[in-house]
Write a structure and sequence with these properties.
This protein is of the alpha/beta class. The protein has two domains: about 160 residues, Aspartate Aminotransferase, domain 1, CATH 3.90.1150.130; about 240 residues, Aspartate Aminotransferase, domain 2. About 45% of the residues lie in helices and about 15% in strands. A seven-stranded mixed β-sheet has the order 1-7-6-5-4-2-3, with helices on both faces. The chain has a four-stranded antiparallel β-sheet with strand order 8-9-11-10, with helices on both faces. Helix 3 runs parallel beside helix 9, helix 9 packs across helix 13 and helix 10 crosses helix 13. The longest helix is centred in the last third of the chain and has 35 residues. The protein starts with 12 loop residues before the first helix and ends with a helix.
Length: about 400
């Protein structure tokens, strides 16, 4: 796997300026997936409620059962069933995301990715992934299946086409959100190219975490065989995920997870659906805050209330956020100041229901691994449910903090 940005060998002021400029250029060139507007988010909410009304548009919406209903069995002797309420929620998700079927999974995003891999990909076969660091729990899941993981840059169409023809993978795995600085490929175009070269013989899987209810369409709606997503990151109070695919593959996942302890019980399934209704509008408001914060900082960066900043970027380094780029290597010192001045220092599972205060934190590990030195110059701000006023107040207070000022002056 290649690195997009390498630090210059020197450490002088000129080298530092060159490094900061290279990071800024890379941030500008990194794709931000299309985000629905507030009006589109309202329509998305209404479509989800309509799908629910078609499935449970009566007092059934208040029925939350437990256990393994025999009529919903997936294995012999009436075993492997699930609660009726869980089955209804799965049907709502399948309708809303235009998939043939859906299954709820324990373990949020990671659990759904593992279930998707286990249900769609044959152990020991070859899988093609983007030439960037995958999410930290994805590669172990592939290795545990004995998969032959091969790499190709999805940003290079010609190179990807050659890899598909020469390496002949049985599966292709995509992450919906960008994985590294400089990523610029279009998800739908990559899926179309795989179909053009390989037809339906190759299974296309998409990790749609942090894209659901933000992007107008997710992997299965763009032609992929399966999508994995976390409902925990979409305001569910419980760590639940989902896999969307055709009935054959979803059926395989249900058979693999036919034990009673693997079932999502009715109350948890309904709680996830009720929370999901609010996610599109909340995320659209959050997106606008990201844009507003970046615009305000860029208007005054490097002076006044925003010293030491080289710029702000409304970016998507795995998660939609505002990236703050400093003109000197003070990112760690700044974060400690932000944590003293109003930001939490930890996350429950970023964007979980329990988080509403703006979070000042490190860039995601996948981005940092591909960009040596970036961790010293850049941080990100996820506004969560906060507005630009709150984000900017914490930012100003952190920049004015005497301990941070002393560290910045000597950097």
């Amino acid at each position: 796997m290649s690195s997009e940005v390498d630090a210059p060998a020197g450490s002088g002021t000129g080298d530092r300026a060159e490094l900061v400029a290279s990071f800024a250029d890379a941030l500008r060139s990194t794709v931000v997936r299309e985000h629905v507007s507030l009006d589109e988010a309202v329509r998305m909410q209404h479509r989800l409620v309509e799908a629910a009304a078609q499935v449970m548009g009566s007092d059934e919406v208040f029925v939350e059962d437990y256990g393994q209903v025999r009529e919903l069995a997936t294995v012999g002797f009436g075993g492997g069933g699930r609660p009726r309420a869980t089955a209804r929620v799965e049907e709502v998700l399948a309708r809303f995301f235009e998939a043939e079927d859906a299954v709820l999974i324990h373990g949020a995003g990671t659990g759904s990715i593992r279930a998707m891999l286990n249900g769609v990909v044959e152990p020991g076969t070859r899988i093609l992934v983007h030439d960037a660091h995958p999410y930290k729990t994805t590669l172990p899941a592939m290795r545990h299946m004995g998969l032959d993981v091969v790499y190709s840059s999805f940003d290079d169409r010609a190179g990807l086409e050659s890899a598909l023809r020469e390496k002949r993978p049985q599966s292709v795995y995509l992450q919906h959100v960008p994985q590294r600085l400089g990523d610029n490929h279009d998800l739908g175009e990559v899926i179309s190219l795989v179909r053009e070269v390989c037809g339906d013989d190759v299974r296309v899987l998409v990790d749609d975490n942090y894209a659901v209810m933000r992007s107008p369409r997710i992997g299965v709606q763009l032609g992929a065989d399966a999508s994995a997503l976390s409902l925990f990151k979409l305001l569910s109070p419980h760590p639940i995920g989902a896999v969307l695919a055709d009935s054959e593959r979803v059926g395989q996942i249900r058979r693999d997870l036919s034990s009673a302890g693997c079932q999502i019980q009715g109350p948890h399934a309904m709680a996830a659906l009720r929370a999901l209704v609010f996610a599109p509008v909340a995320l659209a408001v959050q997106n606008q805050t990201v844009l507003d914060v970046a615009a305000t900082v860029n208007a005054e960066a490097g002076s006044g209330d925003y010293p030491y900043l080289a710029g702000a970027f409304a970016a998507q380094p795995g998660i939609r956020c505002t990236v703050l780029l400093f003109d000197r290597p003070v990112a760690e010192e700044f974060l400690r100041s932000a944590w003293r001045n109003g930001s939490p220092s930890q996350s429950v599972g970023e964007e979980a229901q329990f988080e509403f205060l703006p979070l000042f934190t490190y860039l995601t590990s996948t981005f940092l691994k591909s960009s040596p030195g970036l961790e010293r110059y850049a941080v990100r701000v996820n506004p969560m449910r906060g507005g630009p006023e709150t984000v900017l107040r914490v930012l100003r207070d952190a920049l004015a903090d005497p301990e941070f000022r002393a560290a910045a002056a000597s950097a």
